[in-house]
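Re: duplicated header lines in exported structure tokens

Our pipeline writes sequence and tokens for each protein into one text file. With two proteins the header for the second block appears twice in some exports. Here is an export where it did not happen, for reference. First protein block:
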Amino acid sequence: MSDAATLLDEVAADLLALPPAQFTAARNARAEEVGGAAGRRIAKLRKPTLAAWAVNLLARDGQLAEAVELSHALREAQDDADAAELTRLGRQRRQLVAALARRAADLAAEADSPLSPAMRDAVEKTINAAVIDPDAAALVLTGRLIVPIDLADDTDPSRAVAGSVPDRPTVADAPPERDDLAQRRARKAAERAVREAERARSDAERALSAARTRETKAREKADRVRERVDALRAELARVERDADAADTAVEAAEAQTASARADATAAERTLEQARSALDEATP
């Protein structure tokens, strides 16, 4: 890129970060200061919309790099046809886009240029475009947007930014293309296998804990039953001894009854004899 083009991009980035109400006066002053052909090019710079300006503030604030990283992850998940990962990343994308849009609105309000609901919507669509489309990300990351970007429209990149049209973004901490599709799929498969093994281990640990609990309860119940059996056996032995003693007592009582019966019979005979003798002795 030539020195003149670099200068134009730098000046444009500075001017487009100013509140739009200050843009025209600042642009004209800078064009006059630079002068010559470069000054004439600066004088032709267009004023940004409020939505584009708010996104420029967000880019200068350094908070769009995470969105670009997410776009790399989304494209990788699409290449891998990983439905679960796409679902997770899609949810993360919506949360991130909404958070960045709120941050852009806060930055605009701090600069005394609050955004209307329509402008907030345009900001969110622009950030979402940066996440989904690498060309849109390149435009947004310049911090030189003039108009917001909507993927539903066929926006001319040369009319979307002031100065030079950038190539696709190369963010320092964006994930490089480390491997081919087959390697990524193998890595994903290995990650899934690890997750499944971890879930299986957790399930097995829960099953083991439940089995140990059941075993402890079963042992406690068995101990209580054994104690009851031992008590019943002791009671049975005592009752059997009592029964033997009772039988012995019955036998003794029967012997006494037999003896008493014999005595009673003998006494009856004696009485009869005595009465007979009495009768005989009586005149």
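Second protein block, exported in the same file:
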Amino acid sequence: MIPASGGIFEVTVNRKLIYSKKETGRFPKNQEIIGHMDAM
């Protein structure tokens, strides 16, 4: 994890963006993140 400020929440795996709160306007549900990781 890389701490940041300014309200941007993004999840990356191997430098690939898998979720962005900036794009969706909401925080992800745990299963959404797990689903993206399982698909990789």
